[in-house]
């Protein structure tokens, strides 16, 4: 080894850090997610975000804003853990072989694959999450009253069959791909560009700026799919499939596909910011040490 070479230490994420960071972020943003689901399942626009939040609190109390939290955490531990594990593991391996960052188009393709896989795996937990969040809106006699995520998964399996657990899987997988492209690849690229200016270092403010940009990209990319996915998962048999749901939603006008865009952004952007801040802190303090010589 050249005696003049300098040893530098970097830290890379462990494969499960994405799932842990996403769970921590979900605990903070769950009420916003619940309100978003309520807005999307309205047949006609009757309430805005604040009005919907007030109605939930008035009718069922403040804790009702955390309905379905167990399902949300279950979803993060399946969907988010899978997509982060695929993306970060492959990205770090390719980057170490290439001695530099991946091109942006490769990041997009890798993020889409990770999101597609994670979206499919997380569909059952996602469906139970949507149902548990929407339960408080239904009359008492129509409520499903799942005790927790596992109870919901078992009851759907027993009462409606295993196929119902994957209802809306194509939309969930497609949305997962779009969100992961918006979040992971855009975050990586934004962080790379910000650091490349030389004006900022790899600190929490850089992570905030890059994740805020990524959250905005993800919200716009996935909102139409998110609306259709929510309607399919919450349906009681009124839709024959994805195409029928798309055409039915389309009859309400183009704006119907962006119903709940503001609350989706208000929920997804903070969720993205918190996820990446938690992830970066986990990486910096508990990540795998990699020693390189330059």
What is this structure's SSE topology?
Blueprint: E1 7-12, H1 17-40, H2 49-60, H3 69-98, H4 104-121, H5 123-134, H6 149-160, H7 162-165, H8 169-196, H9 204-234, H10 242-250, H11 261-286, E2 288-293
Antiparallel strand pairs: 1-2
> From N to C, what is the helix and strand string?
EHHHHHHHHHHHE
User: Averaging pLDDT over every residue, what do you get?
Assistant: 88
Structural class: mainly alpha
What is the end-to-end distance?
11 Å
Strand content: under 5%
Rg for CA atoms: 20 Å
- Multimerization status: single chain
The helix fraction, in percent, is over 70%
Identify the strand order in the major beta sheet: 1-2
Features:
two-stranded antiparallel ribbon, 294 residues, 4% strand, elongated, mainly alpha
Short note summarizing the structure:
The chain has 294 residues and is mainly α. It contains 11 helices and 2 strands, in the order E-H-H-H-H-H-H-H-H-H-H-H-E. The longest helix has 31 residues.
Write up this protein.
It is built from eleven helices and two strands. The chain has 294 residues and is mostly helical. The protein has a two-stranded antiparallel sheet with strand order 1-2. α4 packs antiparallel against α8 and α5 crosses α6. The chain is elongated.
């Amino acid at each position: 080894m050249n005696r003049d070479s300098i040893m530098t230490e970097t830290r890379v994420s462990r494969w499960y850090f994405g799932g842990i960071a996403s769970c921590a972020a979900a605990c903070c943003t769950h009420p916003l997610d619940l309100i978003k689901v309520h807005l999307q399942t309205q047949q006609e626009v009757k309430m805005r975000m604040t009005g919907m939040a007030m109605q939930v609190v008035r009718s069922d109390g403040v804790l009702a804003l955390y309905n379905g939290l167990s399902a949300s955490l279950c979803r993060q531990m399946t969907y988010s853990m899978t997509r982060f594990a695929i993306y970060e593991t492959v990205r770090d391996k390719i980057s170490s072989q290439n001695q530099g960052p991946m091109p942006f188009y490769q990041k997009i393709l890798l993020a889409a694959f990770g999101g597609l896989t994670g979206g499919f795996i997380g569909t059952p937990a996602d469906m139970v999450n949507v149902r548990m969040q929407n339960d408080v809106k239904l009359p008492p006699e129509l409520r499903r009253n799942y005790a927790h995520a596992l109870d919901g998964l078992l009851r759907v399996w027993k009462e409606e069959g295993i196929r119902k657990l994957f209802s809306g899987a194509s939309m969930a997988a497609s949305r997962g791909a779009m969100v992961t492209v918006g979040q992971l690849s855009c975050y990586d690229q934004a962080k790379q560009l910000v650091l490349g200016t030389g004006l900022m270092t790899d600190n929490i403010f850089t992570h905030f700026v890059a994740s805020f940009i990524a959250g905005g990209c993800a919200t716009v990319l996935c909102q139409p799919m998110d609306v259709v996915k929510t309607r399919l998962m919450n349906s009681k048999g009124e839709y024959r499939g994805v195409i029928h749901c798309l055409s039915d939603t389309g009859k309400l006008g183009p704006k119907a596909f962006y119903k709940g865009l503001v609350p989706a952004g208000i929920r997804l952007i903070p969720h993205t910011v918190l996820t990446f801040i938690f992830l970066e802190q986990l990486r910096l303090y508990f990540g795998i040490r990699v020693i390189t010589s330059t």
